[in-house]
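Field: COMPLEX_INPUT
Field: COMPONENT_COUNT = three
Field: RESIDUE_TOTAL = 983
Field: MODE = joint
Values follow.
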Amino acid sequence: MTPPGLVPYLLIGALLFGIGVAGVLSQRNALMILMSVEIILNAALLTLIAFWRFVAPANYDAQVFAIIIVTIGAVEMAAGLGLVLLVFRQRGSSNVDETSELKD
Amino acid sequence: MNEFIAWALVAALGGIAVWAAAGMLVTMSMYRAGLALMTSFIALAGLFVLLDADLLAAIQVMMNVGGMMVMMLFMVMFMLDPGGEMMWDMKRKMHLPGPGAFSMSMPPPLPPDAQAPAPRPAAPAPAAHSWTCPMHPEIRRDGPGQCPLCGMDLVPAEADAPPVTAPATVAVYTCPMHPEIRRDQPGPCPLCGMDLVPAATDTAATGTVYTCPMHPEIRRDGPGPCPLCGMDLVPAEAAAPPATAPATGTVYTCPMHPEIRRDGPGQCPLCGMDLVPVEVEAAPETPPATGTIYTCPMHPEIRRDGLGQCPLCGMDLVPAEADVPPASGKDTGAHSTHAMAKPTGRTAVAYTGHAAATGHTGLTPRQNYVMMVDMAMSTAQLPWALVLGAASALALGLLVWITPWPLATIAPPGDATSAVGELLLSRYMIGFEGAAFLILAGIVGAVIFGLPVARPSAPPSVAPPPAQAVPIPATAGAGAVYTCPMHPEIRRDGPGQCPLCGMDLVPAEAAPAPATARTTATVYTCPMHPEIRRDDPGQCPICGMDLVPEEATPPAAVVADPPNHGGHL
Amino acid sequence: MNNLLIVLGVLGGLLAGAYGVAALQRLLDLGPRRVGTALVLPLTTAFSLLRQTDLTPRAADGWLFHSAPLVALTTAALAALVIPLGPDLLGFDPAIGLFYFVIVFGPFIVAVMNAGWGQNSKAGLFGTFRAAAHLLAYEVPFGFAVIGPVMAAGSLQVSRVVVAQSGLWYAVWQPLGLALYLVSALFLTFRHPFDIPQAGSELGGGVLGEYSGPRLLLFRLALDGLFGVVMAMGVVLFFGGWQGPWLPPAVWMVLKTGALAAAVLWATRFVPRLRQDQMLSLAWKVLLPAALLNVALVGILALVILGGTP
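Field: COMPLEX_OUTPUT
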C-alpha cells in the first residue's frame, strides 16, 4: 500500500470548504459566520500545503505564503470582530438578519 | 513510517477535522462551537505535521487557540445564551433522554407513547406503593424522585394518608406558579418547567383554608410558610377557588402579558407588575381575526401580532400554524394533526393529546424543526446552505480527483523549519520591517491620541461646544480637578488613584462640584440622542458615543427635537 | 520502549517538580519556618485529596468538567518534554523547540477555561474569562522574553540555546528579558500575586471552585508542575541549563531550578494579589512596551557581544 498521496488531503480540504460555505450561508450570528470563514481559510491552507509537499517540495516559499495567510486570517478576524462589536452596540443584537436596512 | 499507520493517521485527523467543523454548525452553544473549531484546527495542525510542515503546524495552533479565545471573550458579550444553558436546562426539566450537557441537537418529536422517561402515573389514585413528599403530601408519584416543590426525596406513602386534594376526583393538573396552565396529565409546566400538581378544586370542607397572598393556588389546612415564596399563609376568604375557570367575578390580568389570568389581584409572575382587572367578555387569548399571529415555538400560549421575542425564553417568535390552540390550555383536541411531512427523514406525527405530558411541547414537526434550527443559531435556510455546501464540496472533490497532478516524488530537501526561517530572514525580511513600522505607527498614534485628555467629539452640526470643553487641563481655571470615572464624588487636585476603587483619576470636565444645581453646570448630551442629559462626561447609554457639552439651552429646545432628529435619520 | 521511558520520565519529573514547588512555597510562606512540615505537607495534601469524595456538580457540563484536569496535565507534560536534564537527557528536541514551548500554553489555558465553564457556576464563569484575558495578555511578553535568548543563540532549538551559553550566561546581559520571563511565568501558571482566576478568597475558588478529590489533585499537580517546568526553562534560557563544573548535569539542573523557583516565590511574598484590571494594565501598558524594548536591546547587544549576525 502506498503512503497517502496528494488526493486524500485535497479531499479533506474540499470537505472542509463545503462545510465552511454551508456555515457562512446558514448561520445567523455574525460570530458564527466569522468562524465559518476561518474554516474556509484553513481548508485553503491545507490545500496549499498539500500541493507544496507533493508537487513542489523544494520551493519553501509556499510555506511563507501559508504563514502570511494565517496572519491575514488573524487580522481579518480582528477587523471583523470590531465591526460586529460596533453593530452590536448600535442594535443590541448580533443577528445578521436584523442588519437589513438597505433592503426594501 | 509504516504506510498503514500513515493512512490511519490521515483518516483519523481528517475525520476529526471534518467532524468537528460540522459539529460547530449544529451545536447550540457558542462556547462549544468555539471549542469545536479549535479541535478542528488542532487536527489540521496534525495533518500539517504529517506533511512535513512543522513550523506551520505550530503557527496554526498558536494563532487559532489565541483566536478562539478572543472569539469566546467576544461572544459572551453578544449572546443571550452563550453556553447553551437554556437548551440544556430545558432538556433536564423535561426529563428528555440524552446527555443534556453536550447537547448538539434537539431530539425529534416523538409520539406520546414512545416517550419512555416521562413520569406518567396511569391512575392518579393513591395506591399503596405511591410515593409522596414528607412536606407536601399532595404530591403523588409512581416512583421515587424529588418533590417539585421542595426538592426532598419522595418516600413511600402509606395508603391511609389522604392527600390534601383528592386526585381521584380531579383530572386537572396545574402548575403551582402558573395556575392558568391546565393539563389533564402530569408533566412539566411549559412556562417554568416545574412539575404539574393536581389542582385543588375545592377547599377543605371544614376548617379555615390558609392561602398565600401571592400564590392563591396554595391551599393548606393550617398556617405556615408558602412553599413557593415563603410568606406566611393567611386565612383565605371564601373566594372562588383559583383553579376553576373564571366564569364569574373579575379576572385580573397583566398589562404586559395578557395570557396571565388570575382571580384576584397580585403580581404578574412574568414581569412582576400589578395585575389589573379585565372585562370578562374579552378573551385575550383568542387571536385577532386578521393578521399573522406570532407565537413562540416553546411556549404556544404566547401569542403576539408581530415579530418579537418571547417574554419567557427570549426566542424569536415564529408565525403560528392555524391550528395551534389558544393559551387556555384546555384540551380542545385541536392539536396538530398535520400530516405535513417535512423531508427531513422524520415521520409526521399526529398528536392527539397534550404533548406536554409526553415531556415535549406540543409542536408540529415543522415547528419543531424551526425551533431546532433556531436553537442551533442557524437560519431556516439551513437545508439550502447544506445543499450548496455539499455541492461545492462535491464539485471540488471531483475536480481534485480527476486532475492528473504533476506529482514530485522527492521529499523536501533539508530541514523545512530552518529553510523557512532562512527565507523569512533573507527574502521576506521586508515584510517584517513593514509590520514593525505599522506596529510602531499604531503605538505612537495610540499614545498620542490616548493621552489623558477628554475628547470633544462633537460634530460641528450640533451646538458648538463652549470654551471649557477644550481639553487642556492646564487652563481649567484654578487648577485641574481630578475625579474617578466610577466615583464622580471623588475630587482631587492632582492625578492619583481613587481611594474607593483604585482607578486612575482623570481630569474632570465640569468645574463646579456635582452638588450644585443643574442649571449652572454644563450639561452633557449625546450628539445622536439629545434626550440623554448628564452632569459629567461619559458614554451615551444608548449608542455608546462620548457625551459632549452643550450650551445651557432651556430644556424646551431639547425636548422639541423629535426623537428622529428632525426627520433626517 | 524508548518512548515509554521518555513518557514515564517526563511524568515523574513533572510530579517531582510539583512536589518541589509546593514544598518551596510552604518553606517560603510567611510565618515561622517549619522545614519538616514543608516537606511533608504536599504529600499529605495529595493523599487527603486522593481520599476525598469526587463531587460533580449536578448541572456541570460533564464533558468539559471531567476532561479539563486531564488536558491540563497533558499539556504540562508536553511542555516538560522539551526540558533538558543533561546533554542527552532530552525527550523531544525539535528544531522549533522553544516555539513549541510557548504555544503549548495555549491548550493549557483552554483547559483552565473549560474547567471554569464546565462548572456552570458564576464564579467559574468569571474565572474562565479572567483566565482567557490572562493568556491573551501575557503570551506576547512571554514570547518576546524568550526571543532574547533565541536571537542570542541563533536557534530555536533547546539544546543549542544551552550550548551557546557556555561562555556567558544570558541572565547577565539580558536582565530585562529575565524579569519579563519571570513575571509572565507567574501569570501563566496563576500563581500569587496573579492568581485571581482561581483565588480562593476572591472568587470562591474560581476555575477550581467546584473541583474536589482526585480531580482537584490533578489540577494542582498540573499547575504546580507547570510552574516548575517554566522555572526549569528559565534556567535553560538564562542560566546556562545543565552546565556546571563538578556535579553531573542533571543535579545542576535540579539545583538551579530550585534556586530560581525559591527566589521567585520569595519575591512574590512582598506583593499583594493584584486586581484584574491592574494585572491587565500591567500587561498591556508596562510589559508589552518593555518587551519591545527588550527585543531592540537584545538585538543591539547581540551584535556587540557576539559580533556579527548570529
